[in-house]
Amino acid sequence: MSEGKRPGGLTALAVINFVFGGFNVLGVLGMAAVLALLNVAADAGSNSGDEGMQKVADAWREIGIGLFYLLLALSAINAFLLIASGVGYLKQKRVLGRGLGSVYGLLAIVTAVVMALMVKEEAGGGFSIGTIIGLIYPVLTLILVNTTFKEDLAR
Amino acid sequence: MDTKKALLIARYGARYSVRGGVGLVFLLLSLTFGLMVAHLTLQPVELLSKQVQERMQDEPPEKVTERVLERLTDEARRPVAWLLSERTAAEATPEQDRRANAWAEYLLKDRPAMLSAIFLILLFGWPLVGAFGAFDLYAGDISSRQLRYQLLRADRASIYFGRLIGTTVTFVLVLTLLGATVAVYMAAKLPLYALTDVLAWTVYGVLALTVVTLPYLALCAWISASVSGAFTSLTVVSLVVGGVPLVAMFGRMSHEAAGYVNFLLPWGFQTRLFHYEPTQVALAGAGCALQTVLYTWLGYRKFTRRDL
Questions:
Q1: Which residue out of A92, A129, A145 would a mutagenesis test of the B interface target, given it has the greatest number of B Cβ atoms within 10 Å?
Q2: Does residue A19 form part of some domain?
Q3: Which of A119, B32, B193, B234 counts the most CB atoms within 10 A of its CB?
Q4: How far does the CA of residue A87 sit from the closest CA of chain B (Å)?
Q5: What gap in Å lies between CA B153 and CA B150, rounded to an integer?
Q6: The pLDDT of residue A2 is above 50
């Protein structure tokens, strides 16, 4: 099977990986922008005027800005893993495809759990149906690369 | 038809649709769509409750959420009644208004309102999402002539019904997963309704959505068996499923009778599966069953006679 033609589902998975990888890169850039705004809000203190931003800044100060950096790093790693494993799916590679795909699945689940448990709703975290939506693709990836496409990712 | 072979094809059909890509896209699309509908319906209640809670800090959170939901339900009653109205002319009669209000009352007061809202939105979106999961039942293999190899070992009827059963089972599993997720979430995060009420209404909603899905699936099977090429099938299926309510809506503007075009598919009566009168529910269910049989027969007739 591994020497045969690539299944259409694997190609679809690779394309979806590239799309989601692109979104993740945009997300990382967005988080970096939020970080800059948080610093501005912190510097301005209670005189910043923007009540919403001040609330977010306060929430992050309470949670600890270190966690924000951790989430930023996790998002950047997830973006890299999505794109790299997408290339692995296309080339039907075991390590680059199945290996990195599985790592992405696990890491994305960990990121979602951290966001749900440790980040307050004011700071964009908390548990909602949005969290479950975010888990659909990582869980599907984990299942598919280790069952349906396991034999195809063996080069 | 060989039942054993049909069931074997059903099992492998669902698995290989994921390998082929169509099943994978359907899984992703359907789960995301279903949960997004639930998210967009439940999020306003959660956000509003939080905002009100901040202002009324001495009130218990459950009481605040209950009041917010009550207010939202009151606001939603008029548009829901309008949506469910059986009017045929521009102005509804007092009797039609009374029936629509009673129906809205049943969905928003007697049953868990948030679940009713989710099911009503899903009812209108699911046929279009479902088309993505069933458009390539046979069309792709007909155009690539791959069915020749299966025909050496199985008869046409087994292949036709096997694939149809496999897709139906996949749809039921996805709907059950969606229903279970929403019910568990609501029970855990928005404990406004009794757990038994939520579970009972979820089971009913999933069952109603399954019943509505069957005629659309049968239609997809008919179209997929009639055309060559997956893309052509997807185009025709989308045009028919999405086009019927559009033709009915625009046609009604000039000829009232054009509204009956809706009854070619369950669009014309599918909301009645959530009606408060059991006879209306039974009639809607019978309509779905009749259309399922008709489209399945048309598809089977075409598939068994055409050049594969």
A1: A129
A2: yes
A3: B234
A4: 17
A5: 6
A6: no
Cα angle for residues A48, A51, A55 (degrees, 5° grid)? 100
Q: What is the mean pLDDT of chain B?
A: 87
Residue B21 to residue A11, Cβ atoms within 8 A: yes
Q: Concatenated DSSP letters for chain B?
A: --HHHHHHHHHHHHHHHHHHSHHHHHHHHHHHHHHHHHHHHHHHHHHHHHHHHHH-TTS-HHHHHHHHHHHHHHHHHHHHHHHH---SSSSPPHHHHHHHHHHHHIIIIIS-HHHHHHHHHHHHHHHHHHHHHHTTSSHHHHHHTTHHHHHTTS-HHHHHHHHHHHHHHHHHHHHHHHHHHHHHHHHHH-TTS-HHHHHHHHHHHHHHHHHHHHHHHHHHHHHHHHSSSHHHHHHHHHHHHHHHHHHHHHHHHH-GGGGGGGGGSGGGTGGGGG-SSHHHHHHHHHHHHHHHHHHHHHHHHHHHHS--
* ipTM score assigned to the predicted complex: 0.79
Instruction: Say whether B28 and A11 touch across the interface (CB within 8 A).
Output: no
- Contacts A10 to B, Cβ<8 Å: 19
Q: What type of residue sits at position A123?
A: A
Judge contact between B92 and B105, C-beta under 8 A.
Answer: no
Domain around A32: 8-148
Cβ distance of A129 and B43 shorter than 8 Å: yes
Distance CA B85, CA B88 (A): 9
Put simply, whether A14 touches B (Cβ < 8 Å) is no
**Phi/psi of residue A77, nearest 5 degrees:** -65, -40
Classify burial at B254, counting beta carbons within 10 Å of its beta carbon; exposed 0-12, middle 13-18, buried 19 or more. exposed
Task: State the pTM of this model.
Answer: 0.85
Q: Does A3 reside within a domain?
A: no
CA distances from B209 to B156, B266, B273 (A): 29, 11, 9
Neighbours of A34 (CB within 10 A): 18
Looking at the domain assignment, is residue A153 inside a domain?
no
Number of Cβ within a 10 Å radius of residue A97: 28
Residue A1 covered by a domain: no
According to the model, what pLDDT value does residue A42 have? 63
Number of domains in chain A: 1
Lowest-confidence region among A16-20, A73-77, B89-93, B298-302: B89-93
Cα–Cα distance measured from residue B176 to residue B208, given in angstroms and rounded to the nearest whole number = 11
- Which of B24, B114, B189 to probe the A interface (max A CBs under 10 A)? B24
The three-class DSSP label of residue A20 is helix
* CA contacts within 13 A on the Cβ side of A73: 7
Contacts of A8 in chain B (CB under 8 A): 19-22
